[in-house]
Write a structure and sequence with these properties.
With 143 residues, this protein is mainly α. The protein is 78% helix and 0% strand. It has 4 helices and no strands. Helix 1 packs antiparallel against helix 2, helix 1 packs antiparallel against helix 4 and helix 3 runs antiparallel to helix 4. It is flat and about 55 Å long. The protein starts with a helix and ends in a 7-residue tail after the last helix.
């Protein structure tokens, strides 16, 4: 498994686990509390920050446990990266548009922030799944 593919697996796991942790922290706060008073900011900040730290630490640990032959991306890795980014970026745009529309209608900040966060997570998951599918099927066929 290449260095790049290991990183994709790590990113996918961290995205899923990080968002699950956020939901575990958030859902009890929703019980009986009006949405406008729910303290969601710090759980979101901590899970995003924790995901960043976990990503760095996981890459280091993966390379200690199972070192890669090379850390340089080849042409195939770059094509797979671009394809994953195209898929993932579509959900970043969807999140931005959703936030824009919610702001127009003056929806509570809780919903705007959570829509953006969810779309970032979905973006990361779909980009990772696209990359993994490309790695597992041999990349892209040249036309």
């Amino acid at each position: 498994m290449s260095y790049e593919e290991k990183g994709v697996w790590s990113f996918l796991a961290i995205a899923v686990i990080g968002y699950a942790v956020y939901l575990v922290l958030l859902l009890p706060r929703l019980a009986g509390t009006p949405i406008g008073e729910v303290d969601y900011v710090w759980p979101m900040v901590w899970t995003i920050g924790g995901a960043i730290v976990a990503g760095i630490v996981s890459r280091i640990l993966i390379e200690i446990v199972a070192p890669s032959e090379t850390h340089r991306a080849d042409q195939r890795d770059r094509e797979i990266e671009r394809a994953g980014e195209r898929v993932g970026n579509s959900f970043v745009v969807i999140g931005a548009l959703a936030a824009l529309v919610m702001a127009w209608f003056e929806v509570d900040w809780f919903w705007i922030a959570n829509a953006i966060y969810l779309c970032f997570v979905v973006s990361g998951i779909l980009a990772s799944l696209t990359r993994l599918a490309a790695y597992r099927t041999g990349g892209f066929q040249e036309w």
